[in-house]
Amino acid sequence: MHMYTVLYFGLATAGLHYFALVLAEKYQRWQALRVFAKHHKTKPARRENPWDVLGIYKVVAMARLVIKGTSLDGAIDLFQRLGRTYSSKILTQPVLFTCDPRNMRHVLITAFTDFDSSRGIRDHLFRPITPHGIFALDGNEWKTARRLYRDHFSRTRDIVDLDLQERCFRNLEALIPSDNTPFDLQPLFLRLMLDLTTAFAMGVCVDSLRPDQSVEKKRFVDALIHVKKTMARDGFLGPVHVFLSKKEFHASCSTVQHFVEDIIRQKLAVSRPKDKSDSQEDVATAVESCFLDKLMEGSGDVIELRDGVLTLLIAGIDSVASLLSTATFLLSRHQAAQDKLRASILDKVGYELPSFNDLRGLAYLRYVFNETMRVYPPVPFNARTANQDTYLPVGGGPDGEDSVLVEKGARIVFSSWGSHRDLDNFGRDAHEFIPERWENLQADTLAGFIPFNLGPRACPGQNFALMEASYVVVRLLQTFSRIEKGDDKPWKENLGLNLSNKNGTVIKVVRYPDHSGVVKANGHPVIEKVV
Ligand code: HEM
Fold first, then answer.
1. Is the beta carbon of 415 within 6 A of some atom in ligand 1?
2. Which Gene Ontology terms cover its molecular function (predicted)?
3. In this structure, which residue's CA is closest to atom 7 in ligand 1?
4. pLDDT digits over 225-271, tens only?
5. What is the per-residue pLDDT across 137-149, written as a single tens digit (0 to 9) for each?
6. CA-CA distance, 346 to 467, in Å (whole number)?
7. Which protein residue has the closest C-alpha to ligand 1 atom 1?
8. Residue 190, C-beta contacts closer than 8 angstroms, at least 6 positions apart
9. What is the pTM of this model?
10. ipTM of this predicted complex?
């Protein structure tokens, strides 16, 4: 036989062999899925645009909504049209969208180990800034990291620093116009949370509310803000983000990392961390004990410690700023709720500085926070990837009551924005801000209310966050006799790492008539000035 004939014959046989192997593998996979589907009695979920087989139209439609600033309302329209659970495709990737509390509880609690939070979803976003941080981890690595947060955040009373809160509040208050002119409180809340969280996380406050902020700290803050903005942008762009320049992003990551590493090295150089605050130049803003000190009890690795600190700077700043900005926006536009909240604060706390127990006992304030996060959740949606073949308990079949097959690698996008505004969960007035509804609801056990998520991966900082925010709102309402809206612009979606209002929190404030830098009102005691 001719040499080429032998070669072609050999190649053709190898090709056929390979083709047969692929076919056999596909058949086996199909069989296994069929058995799995039969066992769990799954039925297909309703499919969005079945003709969009590559999921290109879906990407274009989502991009359009994001640009218009209506993607969250667009998501609700789809849930109303297709049901609380439906399937779709995004650039060939199968995705199940759900706002059904039964499915959300299943993914977050019951079948927690069937789903990954980071792999393929957000690890590529977090890796450049916190490669070893908890947000980039799954499985056993995540479990180990999580233990530390659980230990540190389990006793909120021990970690909330009320003196620090007061110092930072005073700095915020100094920037509020006292002549009743409208101003935007949203960027000030962001700066407040930058100051509180940096002091809490690494023992050094970045002074972003102070006029004498150092150039180095300002550079750090600008870089941190840029990093988070880029992460949020790339998260929404998906695979398209690889085509954009990352030069500034990487430079900002390195500025942020070096700043934190320097602080860690200084701390490590001092044998007893607590003695350090005396020898530091930041005496005015340093705190006694911080999260970094806790981390240093278990590790001396600068990179590991840096990622632990940066995780809090990513998780704990914009989220609480979002809660505070939205709560104040809503209170300034719902005068009756504001009056009721102020009355409850003055009744329980008076004009004294609030103690931890005071803050914990303010029931109506908790209703206001619950209702704020129900209507405008700081994390309005989230995603998981199936790490094995699994299922959702509901969403399949014509009435959506059958279970749904979830193939390994498929993505679940679950929407608190959708479940929090579901009329079946919260009644016909689900879209309105009514704190009183919480008199008869139990936030911890209420299916479908998931501002902090549920289960093993729920926010470890939730109680701490609520205490930080409570302190600020109490002090605001003790200081100002009235907080009014400063414009008529409506709330408008702004999707970053956390949800915020594109139109800001524009308000006007009325101080108590005899206010003089300390809280003071007719017939009420005066708060001691905190230095
Ligand atoms: C109102 C404020 C906050 C909200 C609404 C919020 C919400 C959330 C949510 C929904 C998650 C889960 C993310 C996911 O599973 O994909 C989360 C995780 C996390 N949060 Fe918060 N958070 C807030 C404040 C804070 C604060 C103040 C801290 C710490 C200072 C913090 C630390 C964390 C950490 C470390 C995680 C990762 C947990 C893990 O992956 O196991 N959060 N948060």
1. no
2. heme binding; iron ion binding; monooxygenase activity; oxidoreductase activity, acting on paired donors, with incorporation or reduction of molecular oxygen
3. 452
4. 999 999 998 888 777 777 788 899 999 999 999 999 999 999 999 85
5. 999 999 999 998 9
6. 18
7. 320
8. 317, 318, 321, 325
9. 0.91
10. 0.99
